[in-house]
Amino acid sequence: MDASPKIALPPPPGIVNSIKTGFDLVANHLGVVLPPLLFNLFLWLGPRLRMDALFDAVKLDMAAIWQEGGVPAAEIERALNLYETTLPRINLFWLFRTFPIGISSLFLPQETSATPLGQPIVWQAGALDLPVWIFFLTLLGWVSGALYFRDVARLAQTEPNAPPFGALRAVLQTVLLSIFWGFLSIFIGLPSFMLMAVALQFNALAANLLMAFFALIMMWAIVPLFFCPHGIFLKRQNMFASIWGSLQLSRFAFPTSSLFVLTVFLLSFGLNFLWTIPPEDSWMTLVGILGHSFVATALLASSFVYYRDMTAWVQSVLERFKPAPPKLA
Prior knowledge:
67% of the residues lie in helices and 2% in strands. It has eleven helices and two strands, in the order ααβααβααααααα. The relative contact order is 0.15.
């Protein structure tokens, strides 16, 4: 009986080696750290763009509408108190941080908004200019994120004669991908939220099981979501080809890729606690900003290195399993 020969497969790219390579690349090209560094400095020392004045102007009308709708007075008071304590902590300049492609930021709502330079300037967005601010900041975030990803992806390029990736094409594909994922998030997230809300009204256990089911789906989808932009900037693909390449990567290398994404998430999330230890009114916050900007950029470079090596590994494995061409008699 003829036994089928075993095919020796090359080892997949190592997670630690990819992260180390990404840190080395950024350490040798510190200029790519400037976008998150400047963005974090602006969020820290720059003006705040808020909309609590807009809420103060309409809260009485909102309360009247809720009363006419039969909402209990205690619920109305609780909702108004929540808005009054939350909205002053929201800085609309956070909209500059776009997803899935954007410049990483460090700052989240804090109890105090003081800085080493004193109280920051506060700008208020009105009813007429609020949509303009949202559109302008989102568009600016897409453009800046595209250029940032393009510069970081360039560090992972290995082809010496690869054509330059134009800024206009990078921005166009970024906008298309961001709009696509925005519509997809609404299409999937809104029905899921409504379904969980309905289940919660009937049975808390059913709602928890449904939440666990959605969490499992997100765990399966996190790899193609994470690597979706990489084909655009590393292989100069269009949006659809990049999404397909990310799905192929998750299909053939899901366990290793999931572990890589988890490692990047834990490093980024864990170190953010370290960077935010100093209070915002201390100059020691500058150390956290420098550390976050470098690590976030290095982890992004590591993801491009991993994507480059893993797609090459998958391609080599597929080549080994291709049937040999028939021999001519």
